[in-house]
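Cont'd.
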Amino acid sequence: MKELSCDDVLMAQMAVADGEEPGFSKEQLIAHIAACANCYHELKQSQALDQVLAGHTISETRVDLWPAIETRIAKDSRQSIGWKPFALIGLLLVIYKLLEMLPAEDPGMAFKLVPLVIVALLFVLIRENPFRINTELVMER
Amino acid sequence: MDDTEAIKKCQIGDREAFRHLVERYQKRAVGHAMAVLLNRDDAEDAVQEAFIDAYRAIGRFDTSRTFYEWFYVLLRNRCYKLTAKRRPTENLDDVQLLAPQSATHDETRLALEKALHSLSHEEREIVSLKYFSGLSYEELAAYLQIPRGTVMSRLFYARQRLQGKLRGMLIREQEV
């Protein structure tokens, strides 16, 4: 059987007080403490410390970090989209304009809505609400 | 919405779901960051950065862990980065780490806070997580990413230092 040091015993007793598995048998611990005045004294101090620590909780004060986090996330996602989708949208708009310039046939109302759909898709892509009021903007004097 | 559902939604880019996680955990996270940094502004900065790290890494979230356990690793990294270039510590009387209790216990709380301030970041962190947030050794091992044996020894030596700082009070406590 391994010879227990005072630190082993006190650490194991701390685990017992914390409701954890101490790693040594109860008999071993009791035998050591009965024969060691230093451990007995330290154990009493440790129990007193447990009483001081008991019942305290971390102070949780009011905090609202979401607006700052949201701004950063939005900025990040705009940066991470890259140029390709925007180039594609530009190309679609150019094609639309060319089709519109074709003479004769009237393509109808649905065709006129295509640019609107493309712009709506753009806002979906960049995850921005165009109707959101930005309270961070300050009017210039 | 529970965390699992919120995380799944975050993984497909739902910002509102992420807002839900931020609002659920920000207070606890600031408290834990305060325990390491002892500075309210630094703690809020660390939590904010850690949430942004979490949003970027949410696709790699390990479903075998709870959100906060996973998030705490990110928060801890941010806190320890800040300790290297930290602002001067606030007046210790202004840094309230523990929640106030009844007036009769206030003297104990203040003495305990003072003793906690004298510990190292790591010692204060483990004592706070164990005794003020009630984590088990297994949870501490997961939060701090260290083996259970290291949890025990770190906690033991932190307690020894705390005992040293509070010796007078502990003797009075024993006599009661």
